[in-house]
Structures are given as structure tokens and as C-alpha cells.
Hints:
The chain is α+β, with helices and mostly antiparallel strands and 120 residues long. The chain has one domain (3-118): Nuclear Transport Factor 2, Chain: A (Roll), CATH 3.10.450. 37% of the residues lie in helices and 45% in strands. The chain has a six-stranded mixed sheet with strand order 2-1-6-5-4-3.
Amino acid sequence: MSSENNAERVVMACVEAINKGDFKTARQYVSDDLSFVGVLGSREGAHAYFNDMERLRLKYDVKKVFVAGQDVCIHSDLNMSGTIVFCCSWYQVANGRIRSLRVVFDPRPILEASSKSASR
């Protein structure tokens, strides 16, 4: 299996486990020293990242996957507590585990949903 195929397999297995709410399995695909950078914040370490994942219960509807070496990019509709945003996620894999993740999306629908629920 090529390293590109392995990187894609690792990332997609992690995403599938997150979609199932199986964070124990998803955690197996991530380095302890994961670096996460997103629109709404950053996290250092897999423990901090998965604390957020368990709370947010995100679901990915994957539209397209791009692979270049150990880099995997996923375009998806991301469901965050019923609010869906189009998202680009860039994963970097090292030694068979996800080492970094950068996520870009338009946060306005999330912020609007948060302000509506806070005003109730």
C-alpha cells in the first residue's frame, strides 16, 4: 500500500469513527501531540481535541477527498448541532497517525445559531 493510500485510509477511518460517535476508535488514528487550528479556536494535544469532539458531536458528509503524499484534504458538509456548513479540512499524517488538522469554514451560521439560542 502506498503512503498516500495509507494517509487517506487513516484519515477516513478517523472521520468514520467520529461520525459514529466512536471516539475511542477515532483516537487510535491521532497522535498524542495533535495540533488543531480552526476558525473558532485552536487546540494542542489529542486529549483537548477529543474533549471538544465529544461535546460537539460533529458529523461529516464527505463530498471530496484530495491526497498528496501525507496530506489529506476533505471537502465536506459539516453538521454542528444541526447547523450545516461547508468545510475544508487539511490533515497531515506522520508515522501512520494524524499529526495536524487545519479547518476552514464560514462561521456565520454557527455564530448566528449560537446567538439565537443564547437569546431564548
